[in-house]
Amino acid sequence: MMYDLILKNIADHITLSNEERDYFISILKNKSLRRKQYLVQAGDPCRYECFITKGCLRQYYVDEAGQEHILMFAEEGWWISDMFGFVSGKVALTNVDALEDAELLLIEKTAFDKLLLQYPVFERFFRIKLQRAFISHQRRLIENMSLPADQRYCNFVERYPSFEQRLPLKQIASFLGITPESLSRIRSQRAKNS
């Protein structure tokens, strides 16, 4: 069933009544993205919180020199959006695009706000989700400031084993804050030591 994955994601944190589940499903919208297609671009409004049922997306920022800085990857069973734009109602600060063909379930901002008011159990779910995302981003920030590149790569592979095979090295290097050449050297050294 098309909603099984998102309902499992929710059930990992909260229990829904049939009424809450049915209402939640009723506000979801389906969206397909082709590889390299944007979900949201920096400078545009971000009207949706998105759940990935198929595919892999990335969120990134482009600096004034045109350099991409990847903030996160997200695959099946993950949520992604430009949180600043979605929550504040201002324009997005980041880009979100598909690294693979993708299928998404979207919650529009006004429907999201109504959901939280009408069914407070979802306040708990989204609070837990945001707390976990914050912890993950905080840990990544600390590691990027304090760990050598080879250790950051090892941590990445350990935490996200599917990404190493799924993503181009250039994307992983950007996420880790290193050059693709440095990542190639790290991977070669790691292969020799295995």
CATH topology of the domain at 4-120: Jelly Rolls
Taking the sheet with the most strands, its summary is: 4 strands, antiparallel
The percent range for helix content is: 40-55%
Q: Kindly report how far apart the N and C termini lie.
A: 41 Å
Radius of gyration: 18 Å
| Name of the CATH homologous superfamily of the domain at 4-120 | Jelly Rolls
Shape: globular
Low-confidence parts: none
Protein name: Crp/Fnr family transcriptional regulator
Domain Cyclic nucleotide-binding: 16-116
Pfam family, one: cNMP_binding
Organism: Panacibacter ginsenosidivorans
How would you describe what is shown here?
- With 194 residues, the chain is of the alpha+beta class.
- It has a domain at 4-120: Jelly Rolls, CATH 2.60.120.10.
- 51% of the residues lie in helices and 21% in strands.
- The protein contains 9 helices and 8 strands.
- The chain has helices spanning 4-11, 18-27, 83-88, 109-118, 121-146, 149-159, 161-166, 169-176, 180-193, and strands spanning 29-33, 38-40, 48-54, 57-62, 68-74, 79-80, 95-98, 102-108.
- Strands 1-8-3-6 form a 4-stranded antiparallel sheet. It has a 4-stranded antiparallel sheet with strand order 2-7-4-5.
- Strand 4 (57-62) and strand 5 (68-74) form a beta hairpin.
- Helix 8 (169-176) packs across helix 9.
- The longest helix is centred in the C-terminal third of the chain and has 26 residues, at 121-146.
- It starts with a helix and ends with a helix.
